[in-house]
Specification:
Blueprint (H helix, E strand, L loop, with lengths): L2 E6 L6 E7 L4 E7 L2 E8 L5 H4 L16 E6 L4 H10 L8 E2 H8 L3 H9 L12 E2 L14 H22 L4
Parallel strand pairs: 1-5, 6-7
Antiparallel strand pairs: 2-3, 3-4
Helix pairs in contact: 2-4, 3-4
């Protein structure tokens, strides 16, 4: 899904938290007015449908060709923003290694991993598409457990969606 991001330097208003179901887990979206300030996984809201990839439980998951327009609060260091910008270039259904991404931006693999770990916009900025040379790597600072299950499910779901998109005729 192409994402059109408008970066906002600051935002005001009361913070609102919304929960939306995805094919892999529920997410909590924090926003102030129409600016998203954070997105995180909500493991307290895991449903059997999401765990079994039952798409009937999905509130949010755009079609692969549908452009998503969002306003995000600009956060992070210059290096983190550089990494996050590169993450947005990784196509749906594809992955890139930490070292491969580091080479593209003149950085180190560990620094790329640290930027992925601190990504405040999980799902929208697809840090799950970055993997280790010899396996899955980590996800949100975790190498085991629920976060790694989410990473595996996201990659499988996106690979399937990308394959379906490639097979369907363009309008």
């Amino acid at each position: 899904m192409p994402i059109n991001i408008t970066w906002v330097d600051n935002c005001e208003g009361v913070e609102v938290v919304e929960r939306l179901h995805t094919p892999v887990c529920t997410i909590k979206i924090h926003r102030r007015q129409d600016v998203i300030t954070n997105i995180e996984w909500d493991f307290s809201q895991v449903t059997d449908a999401a765990m079994n990839n039952d798409n009937h439980a999905v509130d949010f998951w755009p079609e692969p060709k549908q452009t998503v327009n969002v306003k995000l609060l600009k956060q992070g260091t210059a290096h983190q923003n550089k990494v996050w910008a590169e993450l947005l270039k990784i196509p749906l259904g594809e992955t890139l290694t930490y070292s491969g991404l580091a080479k593209k931006i003149g950085s180190a693999a560990r620094a790329v991993g640290n930027a992925c770990r601190t990504n405040p916009y999980t799902l929208l900025i697809p840090c799950h598409r970055v993997v280790a040379v010899n396996g899955m790597g980590g996800y949100s600072g975790h190498r085991h457990g629920e976060y790694m299950q989410i990473k595996e499910r996201l990659l499988a779901y996106e690979t399937d969606a990308a394959n379906i998109t490639k097979q369907s005729p363009s309008p």
